[in-house]
Design a protein that fits this description.
mainly alpha
């Protein structure tokens, strides 16, 4: 395990800095990549296979119950190492969960506006919805 962490820290962190990643991103990627290394302490980093990466990502989902956001951070941290530091490519899928905004129907908007009799409040409601507030 120590062998992986020593090798990872300088090479990985320097690559992140050279790509002008922000300090919070460097910290997040470093943390996620270190967790990945700790998951396979007995395996040399150069010998890690794509299936082992997938197994780790599945562990994050099933055992650790990572959110989509955290899963993507872990994926990006691992991808960065293999793509940008070692210059080889694994097909690591990114979590594509999307949340769409709730859009009210015209009838719902009319109900909201008409729920008040105060002209000032109607004007405010009529103004804020179309501009996205």
């Amino acid at each position: 395990m120590k062998k992986n962490s020593i090798r990872f820290s300088e090479e990985y962190l320097q690559a992140l800095k050279l790509k002008h990643y922000s300090e919070p991103t460097i910290k997040t990627y470093g943390l996620h990549f270190q967790r990945f290394l700790n998951f396979y302490p007995e395996i040399e980093l150069e010998n890690i296979k794509q299936e082992q990466i997938r197994k780790y990502l599945l562990f994050l989902v099933e055992e650790k119950h990572y959110s989509t956001y955290s899963q993507n951070n872990a994926i990006n941290a691992i991808k960065f190492y293999f793509r940008d530091v070692k210059k080889y490519y694994f097909d690591i899928p990114k979590n594509k969960e999307r949340k769409f905004p709730v859009v009210l129907s015209k009838e719902d908007v009319k109900k909201i506006i008409n729920c008040t009799n105060n002209l000032k409040h109607k004007t405010i409601l009529s103004t804020i919805y179309p501009v996205g507030l």
